[in-house]
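Schema walk-through. Below, the input block comes first and the output block second. Nothing else is stored per chain. Lengths vary across the set, and this one has 625 residues.
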Amino acid sequence: MFQADAADGHEVNFLEKTLDKYLDTVDGDWYKQRIAQALFFLIAGFMILVARLFYLQVIEGQEFRRLSENNSIRLQTIDPPRGMIFDRKGKLLVDNRPSFDLSITRKDAKPIERTVENLSAYIGVSAEELMSKIRRNPNISSYKPILLKQDIGREALAAIEVHNLDLPGVLVYVTPRREYIKKQNAAHILGYLGEINSKELKSGKYPYSNIGDFIGKFGVERTYEHLLMGKQGGRQVEVNASGQVVRVLKTVQAQPGHAIYLTIDQQLQEKAENLLGGHVGAIVAMEPGTGNILAMASSPSFDQNAFVGRLSFKEWNELASNPFRPMENKAIQAEYPPASVFKIVTAIAGLEEGVITENSSFYCPGYYEYGDRVFHCWNKFGHGQVNVVKALTVSCDVFFYQLGQKLGIERLSRYARLLGLGAPTGVDLEHEAKGLVPTPAWKKHKLGQSWQGGETLLAAIGQSYSLATPLQMASLLSVVANEGKRYRPTILKEIISADGEAIFLGKSQTTGHLPVSPETIRVVKKGLWNVVNSSAGTAHDIRLEGVEISGKTGTAQVVGREKFNGVKTEDIPYQVRPHAWFAGYAPAGDPQIAVSVIIEHGASGSKTAAPIARDVIREYLRKGR
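--- output ---
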């Protein structure tokens, strides 16, 4: 038994040794296979890498060497042409022209001092000035161009092109530049462009604008900026080591802005501006039955083209400090005492409230005593017995003093507001003033004082605290001409896309109807007709053959008239002379145009403002226009 066990153990050891030897043989072959596979993949990858290197360095080597050593890919913006602006008849008012704008890219302009020195000699701008412009833009990427000068002209362009090898990094871009066809013409309507500022950029109103872009700052250019501006395009270009374009890789065209047609008549606009020459003031002409503005002139004016470039501080300061305020659109921003034109409001209020009838009359001896004060009529000899029609015809102050006293300031103010005073008209231009219709509550809040009865008398003739704009006066006369129907004044006729599609066609917008009787309107219109067509009328001298004009003169006092009683107008200092008003419409039986004219310190509405209004009306209504 013992021997058998020993034999079995010997067999077991033998089997174990045989199995271990077999396993050693199998493990060795597996490791060899793994190593062989790894070597295969390593050699294959190496061969692929060598082949790729051979392709890049030998086959395509020259092309890639040119790109890596000399060229880079840049993105350039393409400015869109702004939409053009036309008058109501399609006459071009604002266009675009090509501008050669000079820029420098710091990355390519090395050594930049030498490049700037060379450039200075070709464009007539000192190297110090050019370097200061570059230093003012430290945050702009060295790969992005910095604008050095706009509209350099063809001679400078030719010099730069000839010497481009001496000017690495210097580029000239052709961009559309705004051009106002006629200098100073319709400047306050059209407006001007200016460089966008940081506040405007952050406002979110100009999503497609960047630093250095120009946007509308005033007038139509500002109001309809979103329609005029268009949409920027861009191109992907390849440039060489000097920053010069080698080839264009891809282009996305800019989208032009929409064309805008205005309601103004350019021929009438020019006439109005010529009539204002030498005066400080404004003219507004509009269609009573639509609210369309036919002309809006403000004097003095300014040259919009000066703003297309970067206006210097000195130039801007000269405009801003001018005592005659050329940057102000006096037609909608300047506020004046409405003077005797306001008597239309007082007459309507008196008739409608039943305080007077057409036949009611007051006696005018040339003055009116109220309390311990004496209120004078402009005619110191008086007008005698006067009803409302005659009071409008001869502009009798005493009649309206008494009517205003009977009405009271609250009713007077209510009718003034019903006729559109004391609030913006809603014309589609920014910064419109609202004027002022005074009340006891307003005076208490604003001045901390109680209303005085004598102030009601002055308010009834358009003096006291009352203020109005020329556009409000033209709108008021339009309401009377329309038998009480009111329209919102507008300057936009239609909008046409770059593809010729009509985006907007203007429609008249009514803003309500004056709640007065036809009889009240009839009586007032009779008085306004007499102002021009009766021999006693204050504007009798402006009668036109074949055209009946209705209207009202006004002389707005700047200082008390008593101080200069008996003094000739030419002997009164200019700054204290009264302002001259006329507001009217024509033809009287079928009104097609309403006009208001204000001449600052013009002394007399009948002698200064009324003749200008007549000439505007004649120009618009003359045959063959």
